[in-house]
Amino acid sequence: MGVKQWAVAGVVALFAAIGAWVYLDTGRAPAPASTFVLLDGSRKTTADLQGKVTLVNFWATSCTSCVAEMPDLVNTYQKYRDKGFDTVAVAMSYDPPSYVVNFTETRKLPFKVAIDNTGEVAKAWGDVRLTPTTFVVNKRGEIVKSFVGTPDFAALHQLIEKLLAEG
Question: Any idea what the CATH number is for the domain that residue 148 is in?
Fold first, then answer.
């Protein structure tokens, strides 16, 4: 194999490894204990998530992928909210709160939006630095899947339906 072929093979292997890491099933690790401070000033804890299938999405108003996926997050929430599904969108610590409030109000986001002013929530959830990063939490409060980047929403919906059907 020539140098060019080795380089192509290396790039293909790298993308395959990244793809496996990004969409790797995380098993059934418990969601980290954390407190979400919502825009209205109220607080929700990880314990409050139990009993529902919950999507925890770390995002920023400056993240073009986050902004682009937001309509799909809204549609997902609206499709499953009456079946025991919830969403918490966690704005990153570097996102100005006024931008988050403006975005939430102008887009009429129907789910809970939290601001992680201190960065402690992102740190607790695996030191999240890349946005969007999304976690799917089952009814027992366990992380069953995580995505770095925009998820495949068809596959995400299949997973949500499976988890909603669990006892």
Answer: 3.40.30.10
Range of the domain at 101: 26-165
Q: Under 8 Å CB-to-CB from 60, ≥6 apart: which residues?
A: 66, 91, 92, 94, 95, 131
pTM for the model: 0.83
Q: Per-10-residue mean pLDDT for the chain, 167 residues long?
A: 45 38 58 95 93 97 97 98 97 97 97 96 96 97 95 97 92
**The total number of structural domains that make up the chain:** 1
Give domain status of residue 10, yes or no.
Answer: no
What is residue 28's predicted lDDT score, i.e. its pLDDT?
Answer: 79
Which residues lie closer than 8 Å to 150 by C-beta, 6 or more apart? 65, 68, 69, 72, 132
Cα(11)–Cα(96) distance, rounded to whole angstroms?
Answer: 37
User: Read out DSSP for 29-72?
Assistant: EEPPP-EEEBTTS-EEEGGGGTTSEEEEEEE-TT-HHHHHHHHH
Contact predicate 122/58, CB 8 Å: yes
* Predicted pLDDT of residue 1: 53
- pLDDT value of residue 4: 47
